[in-house]
Design goal:
The complex is a heterodimer of chains A (323) and B (275).
Chain A (H helix, E strand, L loop, with lengths): L5 E12 L2 E13 L4 E5 L6 H8 L7 E10 L2 E2 L5 H7 L4 E4 L13 H10 L8 H14 L5 H4 L9 H13 L5 E5 L7 H18 L2 E6 L2 H7 L2 E6 L2 E7 H6 L4 H8 L48 E4 L2 E4 L6
Parallel strand pairs in A: 3-8, 3-9, 6-7, 7-8
Antiparallel strand pairs in A: 1-2, 1-4, 4-5, 9-10, 10-12, 11-12
Helix pairs in contact in A: 3-4, 3-6, 6-7
Chain B lengths: L2 H7 L1 H18 L1 H4 L30 H37 L1 H15 L3 H12 L3 H27 L3 H8 L4 H9 L4 H24 L11 H10 L6 H27 L8
Classes of the chains: A alpha/beta (323), B mainly alpha (275).
The complex binds adenosine-5'-diphosphate (ADP) and magnesium ion (MG).
Adenosine-5'-diphosphate binds next to strand 1, strand 2 and helix 1 of chain A.
Chain lengths: 323, 275
């Protein structure tokens, strides 16, 4: 077997707060192969964003990566210097944010900002005209109409969907190996959501980039991803190919998520239908963190360690499968 | 937004700006506006206002109007120079404290708080007292007293701006810390800074006048409003114009800066502004 492009091993990112330690990411492992699209799905607060930010080593204070390895192209990103890391960010791994309303700087034109993304990773100092030429091509490629007239417009002159297209354009501007899209459609209207997903699909087939698509519902990942990791309270509770997850979900939490796929014709994308509250991040339940909400919970579920079922790469962390 | 659009939108801003422009023109064209030499003791002392001496003369026989006109130079000069120096000191301190956080911030923020625990007036009197009374020392004192104010505003702004998605996004694109701080965080911290700078200019006028009043700023015979106020105080009954004229000018100057500052605060919508 060839080496995966990205191999995250036992990643731990903790927040040290006055009232305690939040284990936002608590032992997450997954692999991403070249050209693969991986979905990471879980309720809000499950640690998806922090996993993404950990990969780029941009975890905000007071958060800290306290353990694990992030092997990218054979090198552990956690061992790189800050300067080496800067060459990874945006150039080899790029990130698309959840809320396009706020991910572009309001005081600069969008053309300048996309150009900046290119310039940050250019050898020497290329002519700005050259860069703008590239910017126009990129923005045309992500479906911004009348690009030539619009490169000098400010972010607030674009709609939310267009801003997200611009962000996507920025994220592909240096042909990165991996694009991480953190709930890229959550803040958008339902109709626009479909367009953005189509755009990501299109880019994927055009550039063959690897994608990590973060989402809080299964519907979105089913459109784009090959494999899915289901996250709950800082841990991956189930991992498998999209077919396995949809046809044969193992973990009770995954099953609940699958029952909550929103219909695209009405605007309900909250996971309100999962019974019970998400766990307190400072004092998560012992054992399987899902057990207080799990209809099948048994005494064993409260204990560590919990049972891991692994069949042909389809993996679930659940006591139900202990025989 | 264009300046004139802002003036139409806010009457008070417009009034403040007009007063400031008037005082500035007065300072620039003092040589043409002032009818007499502001220093020469050419006339009878304490002449009341008349067509020849619009604002009368002072106890040494100098034309009050001419002194008032030249006094605007000192006032504006001190205000602009010392607030500029305060910005040169305060902005980097605020940026570094806010952006890098941690221990650096703790130390810098403690120093800022310490200095802010003294009222500006007391601090400047203290500093000029130590350095000796002179125009330069008054400016140094005002700069030092105002730098922590500027630093605090910048720091607070940076603290919130650095968490914005677009700042994280720039770093996610591979930008370095210093670049991100100066290119992206700072321009988005400008609006409250601009307001603070304008209000500080007003306070600087007041503080300079107070220092001059106490004889700690520009030394006689240099015409300054604070010094004129001090002299007028002694002849408040026999020559009230000596006190009233500089008093009104100081008030107008402070008012102008405060109106502009308040106007800016209302007008600068952080989403739509382009700096
Ligand atoms: N700045 C922060 N300070 C403290 N805790 C945080 C901070 N950011 C995130 N967390 C915690 O980390 C956990 C995971 O957050 P996040 O990765 O944003 O979840 P998701 O993206 O899955 O919604 C949450 O429980 C949240 O409480
Ligand atoms: Mg998130």
């Amino acid at each position: 077997m060839t080496h995966p492009l990205l191999d995250v091993r036992n990643l731990k990112t903790y927040f040290y707060l006055r009232r305690g330690v939040v284990k936002a990411v608590d032992g997450v492992s997954f692999r991403l192969n070249r050209g693969e699209a991986l979905g990471i799905v879980g309720e809000s607060g499950s640690g998806k964003t922090m996993t993404a930010l950990s990969i780029l080593r941009l975890v905000p204070y007071p958060g800290k990566i306290v353990g694990g390895e992030i092997i990218f192209k054979g090198r552990d990103l956690l061992k790189l210097t800050e300067k080496e890391m800067r060459h990874i960010r945006g150039k080899e791994i790029s990130l698309i944010f959840q809320d396009p309303q706020n991910s572009l700087n309001p005081v600069f034109t969008v053309g300048w900002q996309v150009g900046e993304a290119i310039e940050l990773h250019s050898e020497g100092k290329p002519l700005w005209d050259r860069i703008i030429e590239k910017v126009i091509n990129i923005l045309r490629g992500v479906g911004i109409p009348r690009v030539e007239d619009r490169v000098n417009d400010y972010p607030h002159e674009f709609s939310g969907g267009q801003k997200q297209r611009i962000m996507i354009g920025m994220s592909i501007s240096n042909n990165p190996d991996i694009i991480i899209a953190d709930e890229p459609t959550t803040a958008l209207d339902v109709t626009i959501q479909a367009q953005i997903i189509d755009l990501l699909k299109d880019l994927r087939s055009r550039y063959n980039s690897s994608i990590i698509l973060i989402a809080h519902n299964m519907g979105l990942v089913s459109e784009l991803c090959d494999n899915v990791a289901v996250m709950y309270a800082g841990r991956i509770v189930e991992y498998g190919s999209i077919e396995e997850i949809f046809n044969d979900p193992l973990h009770p939490y995954t099953r609940m998520l699958l029952r909550c796929i929103p219909r695209t014709d009405i605007d309900v994308d909250k996971l309100e239908s999962i019974p019970g509250e998400p766990p307190d991040p400072v004092n998560p339940p012992s054992g399987c963190r899902f057990h207080p909400r799990c209809p099948y919970a048994k005494e064993e579920c409260k204990r560590d360690p919990i049972y891991i079922e692994n069949i042909d790469g389809h993996m679930a962390v659940c006591e139900l499968y202990r025989r | 937004m264009k300046i004139w659009e802002m003036m139409i939108e806010s009457k008070l801003f417009a009034i403040g700006l007009l007063i400031l422009i008037a005082i500035t023109l007065m300072a620039i064209f003092a040589d043409y506006i002032a009818p007499y030499d502001p220093i020469a003791q050419d006339f009878k002392p304490k002449l009341p206002p008349s067509p020849k001496h619009w604002l009368g003369t002072d106890e040494l026989g100098r034309d009050v109007f001419s002194r008032l006109v030249y006094g605007s130079r000192i006032t504006l000069y001190v205000a602009f120079v010392s607030v500029s120096i305060a910005c040169l000191l305060g902005i980097p301190i605020g940026l570094i404290a806010g952006y890098y956080g941690g221990k650096v911030d703790k130390v810098l923020n403690f120093l800022i708080d310490l200095m802010l625990s003294f009222p500006a007036i007391i601090l400047t009197i203290l500093i000029t007292g130590m350095l000796g009374p002179s125009l330069t020392n008054a400016m140094i004192a005002i700069s030092i007293a105002f730098a922590p104010r500027i630093a605090r505003i910048v720091r607070g702004q940076v603290l919130s701006v650095k968490e914005e998605d677009y700042v994280v996004a720039v770093k996610a694109m591979g930008a370095g810390g210093f670049y991100t701080m100066t290119k992206h965080v700072f321009p988005n911290s400008m609006a409250p800074l601009l307001v603070q700078v304008t209000l500080s200019l007003g306070t600087a006028v007041l503080v300079e006048s107070a220092l001059a009043f106490l004889g700690l700023s520009a030394q006689p015979p240099t015409p300054s409003w604070g010094d004129m106020l001090n002299r007028g105080r002694r002849y408040i009954y026999s020559a009230p114009w000596m006190l009233t004229a500089p008093g009104i000018m100081i008030t107008l100057a402070v008012l102008a800066f405060n109106l502009i500052g308040d106007g800016l605060r209302d007008l600068l919508d952080p989403r739509l502004r382009r700096l």
